[in-house]
Specification:
mainly alpha, 80% helix, 128 residues
Length: 128
Amino acid sequence: MLALGLVLNALGIGLFCRILALAVYALPFSVALSIGMMALQSGAGVAGALLIGTAGGALTLVVGQVAVAITRSLALRIAIATAFAVPAAMAAIMWRLPCRRSGCLRWLGVRPSLAEVRFASAVRHGHA
C-alpha cells in the first residue's frame, strides 16, 4: 500500500508539473482565439480565421520568449511572466467556479477556498 501511495504521489506531482508547463500557452491560445474570432466575423472564412489565429498565437509565443531571452531587467521579466500567467489563472478560475456550483469536484474532496466562499456569497446577495 505504501508503494502504491508513493507511485501515485509521484504521478500526481508529475501531472501537476505538466499542467504548470502548459500554462505558458494560455496567453497565446487566448490571443489566437480572439484574433481568429475577429477574422471569422470580418468575413475571412473558417480556413482564413484558423490560419490568422494560428499565426497570431505563434507570434505572441515567439515575441514573449524572445522578450524574456533578451531582457536583463528582473522587473521586466516578472512583468512578462505575469502577462503570460494571468490568462492561465483566469482560465483556472473560470473552470473551477462552474464545477464548484454543479458539484462535480465534490466527489474529489476539493473544498472551496475562502475567496470562492466570499465570491459565491456576494453573487447570492447581488453584490458582484
